[in-house]
# Entry
Amino acid sequence: MAHPPRDLTEISFAVRFFTLRTEFVSSWPEERRGMFLTLQDVEAGLRATGYIADSIATTTVYLAARLQKPLLLEGPAGSGKTQLAYAVADAAGTTVERLQCYEGINEEKAIGKFDEPLQRLCVELKTKSSGVDWESLQTELHSQQFFSAGSLLRALQCEKPCVLLIDELDKVDHAFEALLLELLSVWQLSIPKLGTIKAKSIPFVVLTSNEERRIGDPLRRRSFYLRVEHPTAEREAEIVALRTPDSSHEFHAGMAGLAKALRGWSLEKPPSVSEILDLAQALKVLGAERVTAEMRDVLLPLLAKTEADRRKLLLRDGFASLVYDAQQYSADTLRGSVA
Ligand SMILES: Nc1ncnc2c1ncn2[C@@H]1O[C@H](COP(=O)(O)OP(=O)(O)O)[C@@H](O)[C@H]1O
Ligand SMILES: [Mg+2]
# Structure
């Protein structure tokens, strides 16, 4: 038998928690409340920018925006991670500050540095006039006027929250991750000689990784984690349709079917969404409505990007059976879109 008093306590606790949570969020000042007011804003916004996301991705973006959590996107190259950051910015009507990571990236690149030629010029000009006050000149030279900001600092200085895209974070070392940790926890940057710069607005942070190196747990703890995998055939057909709107349903499903077949072929480097989009454009240029076994030699440079993969698709009947698989998958996709 149920225990009514306990159930009621649980319900009342849940309602109270929800009310408190809602009150807490809505008590934030407007500029801190994030970029989207409703989940529907995210769904409609992303779609309007031409980004096809599933419901998990849209909900995670929504929650990350509302709770001002960084979003860590991991998955294979070309699966739409960078594009998602741009789509979020577009949907929210804001700008992107992008930090493209690379091996050896340093604080100067990310945060900025003093513009030394400008400082020198200023000193030259000032020393020409008599009565230079060295102390005030020194203060002036170490002000923001003479500091050329990198993308991390620019993102904090935006009046309205922007999207801060820290792209391909797996290329940096642990020291650089630690710098980001500080930024993401206190939303301020301490710069020698310049001082501490506090955020004017809190950006929507997107961290992306192609998983060449494992991102540390402290950054993972602070972020919401979204895997961006190759899309399902239905979603890939939609993505292709957005890029080649003049083609038929069969064509879009055909591209998605071929993508699925290629990815099931245990290739060294399976094709990404962006490569399937290239293939669709190439077929348009060639005036072809679908891929046939006879097109193998023409299409191989677009589909097989390593010598091992090329050999695999060149094997006797290799390409023909790939095309056969692709046709089965595209028929499934078409049936799915009709159902
Ligand atoms: N879900 C999607 N909706 C629309 N276009 C997509 C999607 N996923 C990938 N793309 C396309 O693939 C291209 C490559 O994606 P990109 O974001 O550069 O990949 P990644 O950053 O994961 O390497 C994008 O320019 C975009 O055209
Ligand atoms: Mg990218």
Residues 81-82, 167, 208 surround magnesium ion (ligand 2) (CB under 6 Å). The longest strand covers residues 204-209. The CA atoms of residues 102 and 250 lie 41 Å apart.
